[in-house]
What does this fold into?
Amino acid sequence: MKLYRYRTIKSALLELEDGAFYFAEPAELNDPLEGYLKIYWQGDAPAWQGLLKNFVCSLFYNLQTYLLTARHFQGVSRENFFGDLQSKNILFDSHRFEDSPLSQIFRELGEQFLTQDKVREVVEFYGDDKIKCYGREMEFILRTVIDAAFIICVGKLKSLGLIRADFDGNFFDVEYEISFAELKNISDDARKQRIDELENLNCDMMESGLLGLKLNRRPSDTRYLFKQHMLWLRFIFPRTYVEQLKEIMYPNGYVVCFSDTPTNSAMWGNYADNHRGVCFIYETENLGGREFINFAAKSLEVKPVKYCKQVIERNFFDTLRHLSFLRAEDWLTGLGGRKSKKLTAPESSAGYDDDYQEKFYRKMTDWHHEREYRIFLADRFYRYADKFARHWKYDSKTLTGLVFGIRTTLDDKLELLRKLARLGKSVGNFDFFQAEYDDETQIISIREKLLLTKIT
It folds into this structure.
């Protein structure tokens, strides 16, 4: 089958020069919902306790790392480093510290945290394996317990001499004006609405407080700056922690995008410099009823994107057993060593793998006009994090032609023809088309273009 790839002149020339496709990560594509999964948390008490243990230990590890680094750099890089922590704040595997004092600290922190009243309320409310809790509600849960987590962590850091003994940690203690007893007596929809209202109010108030601190900052007062940083972490940590919980559920994946039509005006406008670019034509190879593009190392299948309103849902706790970089037992073990049923619940790895691939082939119905096809590059072992590793040379026979845009200039056409000639593509064995707008039908069509010029 023929596939079309809309390009600006600049990107077209680079792609011809490299003879390669660049596999993009979802964040580089133009839809912010690319690769989106609807993640929820639904589990028994040990599963929730295991997660909350990780939360407090991750918070402690971040605070300790910040304090040690700030001391090492004598405060010069405090703020930059502290901001960087929001992308690294989950402690995936605490067992890597088994031969260090941190191991015992993590055990003590986890046990102490799980005995706090607010934490026990959370586990009691959500730990019956019946309530589906989505990202927004998960942030709310962590905000209800983060003050208790901070007070415990600050106390431990004081005992280690990393925080001054006279530091007042009670300024974290801001109670939510809601009880889980209240939430038990209302419907799921009413609960979510109540939590949304509370989250919005709380986040706005905290953000206003942080803005006030920054507007009235005293750079020379190190204790003032430390308090400011702690308040910032109290505000941002629950949100970044939840976002990273979602990210760890699947390894990275990368895609190359095509369309099955060269006559979409919106595509020409969005991806080909407002019709000034070109549209490359690639020919796939059919093997057993499936379409492939050949690369130097292997062939990769080309599959159509599905456009649907329904997104893939997945339970975080069901996924943990499939993640090789952490010990699921640690995350699914609660107070007193009690194990979650999620450790033995039947679920095949096939379902996990299917969802992993499927999420890269789904888009919202708003994008159906693109009629998109994709090549997917899985990265289960994190070999392609470097962008250079994601430039793959394709079989030169795959590129069979191009379509000039309505506004492609004569000079740009000439430059493209010269580039093709240097790559061994002659006018005689390459297909050229011209995109044109028909006033009568008011649609774009393409016609074969006759090129008699010999390019040298």
Residues 92 and 326 are 6 Å apart (CA to CA). The chain has a mean pLDDT of 84.
